[in-house]
Amino acid sequence: MAAKISQMNINNPENRSALITESDETIVKVEGLKKLFPLTTGMFKRSTSFIHAVDDVDFYIREGESLGLVGESGSGKTTVGKLLVRLLEPTNGHIRMLLDVADQDIARLRGRSLKRFRWHVQMIFQDPYESLNPRRTIFDTVSEPLSVQGIGDIAQREDRVAELLTMVGLAPAETFMFRFPHELSGGQRQRIAIARALIVSPSFVVADEPTSMLDVSIRTGVMNLMRDLADQLGVTYLYITHDLAVARYMTERLAVMYLGKIVEMGETEDVLANPLHPYTRALLSAVPVPDPTLKREPPNIKGSIAKAIDPIPRCRFYDRCPLASRVCEDNDHPPLEEKGPDHWTACYMV
Amino acid sequence: MTDIITKSPALQTTPLATDIPVWRVRLRLLWRGIRTNVALFTENPIGLVGLAIIVVFASLIVIHPILMKSVWDRNVYDPVLGIDLAIPFHPAPPSPEHLLGTDPLGRDVLSQLMHGTRSAFILGSLAAIVNFIVATTIGAIAAYFSGVVDSIFMRIADLVLMMPVITILIVLGSLLNLEMLHLAIVIGILSGLGGTTIIIKSQALTIKVRTYIEAARVAGGNDFHIIFKHIVPNLLPLSFLYMTFTVSAAIAIEAVLSFFGILNIRMSWGVMIHTTQYAGYLLDMSKWWLIFPSSVSISLLTAAFYLVGRALDEIVNPRLRKR
Amino acid sequence: MTDYLLKVEDLTMHYMTRTGEVSAVDNVSFALRKGESMGLVGESGCGKTSIAATLLKLLPENAKVKSGKVLVNGTELLSLSEEEMRSIRWKRISMVFQAAMNSLNPVYKVGDQIIEALENHNMISSNEEARKRVEDLFLLVDLDPKMMDQYPHEYSGGMRQRAVIAMAMACHPDLIIADEPTTALDVIVQDNLLREMTAIQKKLGMSMIYISHDIAVIAEVSDRIGVMYAGRLVEYGSAKQIFKRPLHPYTHGLMSTFPSIVGPKRELKTMPGEPPDLINPPSGCRFHPRCPKAQQICSQQAPEFRDLSGDHYVGCYFPMEVTFDGG
């Protein structure tokens, strides 16, 4: 496999497509993904209760598109992102990706193959004030994926960093390279984080609320940059956000999560225009609208989000659902079903 | 593997304009960092007082060999073997020849004091370096791996904290032939394994959960890379702080042990007090020049390092700053 | 003059820092009628929280009010002593902070904390009366009165924010300043809370100042909107006017960069540059380095904050003429 990789030019999307063995263009396929967090931890204590952070989730992402993952805090969306970049180890399930490590289940990679996997899959974090080490220069930070993977010598890394900094709009690059994070603004820092993620030319990037900490006037710049780079470099995103309006602009497809479950998934515009699941509807109607003449109806939902601690086998949304009935209580959480063309929802009542 | 870099099409269009090699830029950055920290340090009078005292003592170390080579006769002024036969009775009070008098064995107290300063500095800095290496490494490793590794090191720390350090050193000193180097290493390890480790570890725990640690892991960094490139550099300020406290502790401990005469050290401030006590002049205030120079020096130098530590504390913990 | 509850005139406030003087609030003037709600919108560091802190005189030590007046019902606040100010805080003006957890003391029961606030202002005579008042307040913000004997950590984020709002309303103030009250909350909780706050405000006839970076939130809750940029109020008018016809290029820019889930999906414009460093703010109009309409005069002299079209103030030489049509 090593020989195969060394022949490859990661920068060239054509070469990568040669690796695709299946006929469809799915780059990420997740099956039955599960992550439980034990509630009591300790050396000798056995945990009996678990938080079902991600509970039996299936989805796929096509190459070059970006899938939005939306939901409230505690819905498990960030956990999904961390599982896909293997910052967390799944309790159960399979993750398949069309990379040159594709013959293995991503969920079970270890050692050298896990390190190689990191060439192809990167992550952009939410808080640019937290995700850059304050004691390392911008050059150190951006070149880190290269240096830990042992790619290129110092001069080559320097050139590559300069190239990436120019690409993310921090030009002239040499004025930024040897600064420290605290000398940069929030928007500039997030651009640095984007440059770090893209320096190994990954095919798949998990972006965890990359613009939620940024100011409005700067946010769109970063959003547009991410879109442009995706087109230019052929990057596929999993875009995690709590903001449906941002998801609308950043994603082609959308998955809505509630308490560790995907409750609805489909084309972004389709989901936003014709939400099927009662939770998606509530979420949509709660989004404030920048128009003082418009009076929205209050969202049709009860109570507030709970924690998925050893959930009862019934629909996760049962307690808050306006449509809840006998079926929803007697059966386990409904499976995702295709209710329209590529429009999936998990609800007995629609 | 270099394909990523060499075949990148945009590369030719954006060559780096600077020709300055990376190491020079790094040096310049380091210098700039030092300058800002020095600026912060100099704003604090406490730190400056401490630093001034340290500089005065440090200059004694430099002056002593020069004096020995030039004006001071080795037979008379050697801190260990010298004796002034011109004076009939020792200890002799301060005089133009012996600015701080002579000790019961006829040796020059000033010369002893200057020589002892060197011992104090060597001992203090060695102990501090050992403490630094032990505490920072163990603290970072315990915090990073947590679980069993953490439990083992923390139990060791508890044990060390419970042990009476002085008593143990007295026993060790009686059993073994403890020299300065050994003493420094023992003090460094004991202080490093004990309280300092616990403090460094708690700081490392706050660094471990920062997002840039996750980012480093996504970049492909292994445990070693994350501990030594990300966690340890962020621990350095606190580690330096505890180094200064270790210096103070080491000097004080040496004085105590020398007082009991169980160290194989030829001359130090502690030995000076020991000689005084041995000759029965410890509480004889009319022979003040025997006890005061060394004891005042011990107090001053330990206080000075402590003051510098406090001033560093304000740089390390910005919350303590006035603005 | 009498129908204005709050009048702020030429307020200028600086922070003295190690690196220089930060011009956090510069020449800000606005007025708010009784019973009206006002939204103060702007990016982080634009001075909106500093204004709130100045109104309550809760400024840090290094802050210095350079000039200006703050009149509440005709009383000038800035010249009041700390003693006199304490009787106005909570009773006349109160505040809801962004981090609800920090406003609640974790070691006391939530109900007791509200009772204490009431006692401090001699609002109650007996313990039963106090509990009754707290019960009413809890009902008002849609919290179960049984929860008053629980500790803050037993509350969820939304419930904590409700408790803080209940506390802010305990003494029936004329004005509540809410600094990013819902920023840390999820949309559904946010919606719920905003609806309740608006309802209570209208019911009790209080005035309200909402501070937020989210223009959509501001649009939903405010009668009047003030837009801040780099320490200056650049536009102030009724919500409808501002959204229909933003006059300042910055306001216009903000609206066209803001993604929305309603209406057709339009291209998002980007605003060039970044907000300036307030230690060395740009000369003249502080927005001129980023402004598409900037001319020479903009960098020379700060424009006057003037009433352009019937109670719609703007600080710009070349206000936008176009109506905002969503792009």
Largest sheet of chain B at a glance? none
How many β-strand stretches of chain B? 0
Which class of the domain at 4-81 and 178-188 and 203-314 in chain C in CATH terms?
Alpha Beta
> Can you tell me the overall shape of chain C?
globular
- Assembly level: heterotrimer
Q: Determine the CATH superfamily of the domain at 4-81 and 178-188 and 203-314 in chain C.
A: P-loop containing nucleotide triphosphate hydrolases
What is the CATH third-level topology name of the domain at 4-81 and 178-188 and 203-314 in chain C? Rossmann fold
> Biggest interface between protein chains, with counts per chain?
A-B, 56 and 40 residues
Q: Look at the helices and sheets of chain C and give the structural class.
A: alpha/beta
What is the terminal-to-terminal distance of chain C? Answer: 38 Å
Short description:
The complex is a heterotrimer of chains A (350), B (323) and C (327). By secondary structure, chain A is α/β, with parallel strands linked by helices.
How is this structure best described in words?
The complex is a heterotrimer of chains A (350), B (323) and C (327). Chain A has 350 residues and is of the alpha/beta class. Chain A has a domain at 24-64 and 71-120 and 240-287 and 300-350: 3-Layer(aba) Sandwich (Rossmann fold). Chain A has helices spanning 2-7, 13-17, 77-84, 111-117, 138-149, 154-167, 174-177, 186-198, 216-233, 244-250, 268-273, 278-286, 326-330; strands at 26-38, 50-62, 66-70, 92-97, 121-124, 204-208, 236-241, 253-258, 261-267, 337-340, 343-345. In chain A, the strands form 2 sheets. In chain A, strands 5-6-7-3-8-9-11-10 form an 8-stranded mixed β-sheet, sandwiched between helices. In chain A, helix 8 runs parallel beside helix 9 (216-233). Chain A starts with a helix and ends in a 5-residue tail after the last strand. Chain B is mainly alpha-helical. Chain B has one domain: MetI-like fold (Orthogonal Bundle), CATH 1.10.3720. Chain B has helices at residues 3-6, 22-42, 45-69, 74-77, 109-145, 147-162, 165-175, 180-208, 211-219, 223-259, 269-278, 288-316. With 327 residues, chain C is of the alpha/beta class. Chain C has a domain at 4-81 and 178-188 and 203-314: P-loop containing nucleotide triphosphate hydrolases (Rossmann fold, 3-Layer(aba) Sandwich), CATH 3.40.50. Chain C has helices at 48-56, 82-88, 100-103, 110-120, 127-140, 157-169, 187-204, 215-221, 239-244, 249-257, 296-300, and strands at residues 4-17, 20-33, 37-41, 63-72, 75-76, 93-96, 175-179, 207-212, 224-229, 232-238, 306-307, 313-314. In chain C, strand 1 and strand 2 form a beta hairpin. The chains are: A alpha/beta (350), B mainly alpha (323), C alpha/beta (327). Chains in contact: A-B, A-C. Chains A and B meet through helix 5, helix 6 and helix 8 of A and helix 1, helix 2, helix 6, helix 9 and helix 10 of B.
